[in-house]
Design goal:
cell membrane, single chain, transmembrane transporter activity, about 70% helix, ABC_transp_permease, mainly alpha, about 300 residues, ABC transporter involved in vitamin B12 uptake, BtuC, transmembrane helix, membrane, 2 strands
């Protein structure tokens, strides 16, 4: 179905892949913030995941190894952030910004030798006859395994936070680390685990960018995706399903601007390039205002350091 030169089915199918890096990073950041830690280093973790995943995939010829190493790189960056903020009690905002700058610089250095190199392809899952269903087959059953993993992770995070003891402990630490500590919960350990999980998802999202979305290594290729993930978490009121909506909105506008360029619309390329970021933020702000009466407040301990002696 083509409307105004835009293939709607292709657009809908493309947005799922375009949304995946941001969805993974935002889901991980949601878990980190639920524990009471504000990590502004998402962009740095994503770009390190992108370069580490790309390098591993090229070296081994196996894209799965690339995704695994991307997740490991993101988790290591997050663990460094956790050590600095939870053990050394450094300022979370300043440390997160430093982590982003560190990641951007280190990834540029590591990636110099991979410019112009093509990674091994990531195969799409074979759903057999389901892929041949008109319209729905192309939209729902024509993607690689990471796309479906990102959706599964949203559901798992929602369930864990809502219905499990682990989720209750995580939310308790995020709401009042002093009260959680008084009840015997290991606040620092919980936050380390939440940050490592968030970093792994950010790194996985970065690896998806360099191995599937582009696919090649380009310095600074995350292009602000980490900051969009942070904004989505806040405007989604720390709710997993709203994070999914925000990420798919961003992915949809990204896919649309690419199709508008391909269709030859006389719109300046700079406006098209900024549109996904600008429109996503505007829509999220509007949705947040509309649902203000039901908005879930940020975790009460978000951004606050925990002192074991308190």
């Amino acid at each position: 179905m083509i409307v105004g030169g835009i293939d709607i089915v292709s657009l809908t199918a493309t947005l799922m892949g375009a949304s995946t890096p941001v969805l993974l990073a935002a889901t991980g950041e949601l878990v980190a913030e639920k524990s009471g830690v504000l990590n502004l280093g998402v962009e740095g973790m994503m770009i390190m995941g992108a370069v580490a995943g790309f390098a591993a995939a090229v070296a081994t010829g196996n894209p799965v190894m690339g995704f695994a190493m991307g997740a490991v790189a993101g988790a290591l960056m997050a663990t460094l952030f956790a050590f600095l903020t939870q053990k050394l009690l450094s300022n979370q905002v300043a440390t997160g910004l430093a982590l982003t700058l560190f990641g951007l610089g280190l990834s540029a250095l590591i990636g110099k030798g991979y410019e112009g190199v093509r990674p091994p392809p990531t195969a799409k899952l074979d759903f057999g006859p389901l892929s041949d269903i008109p319209v729905l087959g192309r939209i729902l059953f024509s993607h690689d395994w990471v796309v479906y993993l990102s959706l599964l992770l949203v559901a798992v995070v929602w369930y864990v936070l809502r219905s499990t003891r682990a989720g209750l402990i995580l939310r308790a630490v995020g709401e009042s680390h002093d009260a959680a500590h008084a009840l015997g919960y290991r606040v620092v350990t919980v936050r380390f685990a939440a940050l490592a999980f968030g970093g792994a998802l950010a790194g996985l999202g970065g690896a998806y960018l360099s191995l599937v979305r582009v696919p090649q290594w380009t310095e600074g290729m995350t292009a602000g995706a980490g900051w969009i993930a942070l904004a989505i978490v806040v405007f989604a009121s720390w709710r997993p399903w709203r994070v999914l909506l925000g990420a798919y909105l961003f992915g949809g506008i990204t896919a649309l601007q690419l199709q508008l360029q391909a269709a030859g619309y006389a719109i300046p390329v700079h406006i098209l390039s900024m549109a996904p970021y600008l429109i996503t933020i505007i829509v999220l702000v509007i949705l947040s205002a509309i649902h203000r009466h039901g908005v879930q407040a940020a975790p009460a301990s978000l951004g606050k350091s925990f002192h074991a002696s308190s």
